[in-house]
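Trying the structure run again after the queue cleared.
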Amino acid sequence: MPKKTKQLTPCQLQRKYLCKPQILPQFLKKGMNINDLVDVYNHSGAFNAGRLAEACRLYCHMLSKDVTVGLTLSGAMTPTGMGGTLISLMEKGFVDFIIATGANLYHDLHFALNLPIHQGDFRADDTELYHAGIERIYDIFITDELLLKTDKFIQDVTKNISYTEPISTADFHYLLGKAVLSETPSPQLSFVAQAAKHNVPIFVSSPGDSSIGMNLSYLKLQGNNFVIDTDIDVIQSTAIIFNSKMNGVVSIGGGSPKNFYMQTQPTLAQILDINKGGHDYFIQITTDAPQWGGLSGATPTEAISWGKMRIEEIKNHVVVYCDATIATPILASYALSKAKARKKKHLYKQLPDMVNNLKKNIKK
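Done. Tokens:
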């Protein structure tokens, strides 16, 4: 028979559930900065303003510890200008590696090549846009000319890669970033270039699902033998998690990049029989709800059942239900203002040693 738990009295239950500060009216003042705004959210504690304040505090806590911080980026966030936010975080050592969709890398290259992305309107006539050679990403406009010039750059860079053995997406994006640094007019605007500069690995979990993959397939039809092996991505990303003292992630959106990060723990525990107990910290900004069963809306508590998240007495995860273009700049600005710059880990340069160490610890 299960042991019966002692029933708490109404007074004890009130003390349990009414232990946080009371909510007061939120007064806004002239000259307030991001820290002031987050402090208002913190004291309101309500709905997703409260969750965003939690995320800001948790991110700063992560940055104060010896945590290897991953960042996942789904959809196409770079056309909104979010690449600049990533650059600011990398420069301070606040992001150690990135997992993104290929679209985010492809559209990032436009900025380095000085190819203009324009503010648009989601109510535009898409038939007219098609005849004008303009593509729409919700309320952002890009052109056929921009796409073709970016395609040519990717093709030219890839043709000059001399690797005869398969490589990972992190290897390819490092080579691409180095080319952006040396061959484009504005590499300071590209997070792909700055990641290469700071040795921040960038993985793309579905490399064929983007214009970069389309261009690589075109070269293969022409006889180019360059090969990306996604199995190497799984090995390298898992090696990063294995070799890190603690692990945490900021997940922008969800999708394949989120899952690719989260699967590193089951890869260790389930496949390699090396149980690290799950990730230590998790922050997600998403508009997806959990009840539809999709990965993007799956909660960190659900991840505990898979061994993807560590069970902690102190809350180590938070989900903010908000448009990423609103919440991410606030989260990043708060961290840049509050947290001390960290020594960069330069994980890309460490990948060979990390993989070798993982191999040594695989049980025969």
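DSSP finds 16 helices and nine strands in the chain. Worth checking whether this holds up in the mutant runs.
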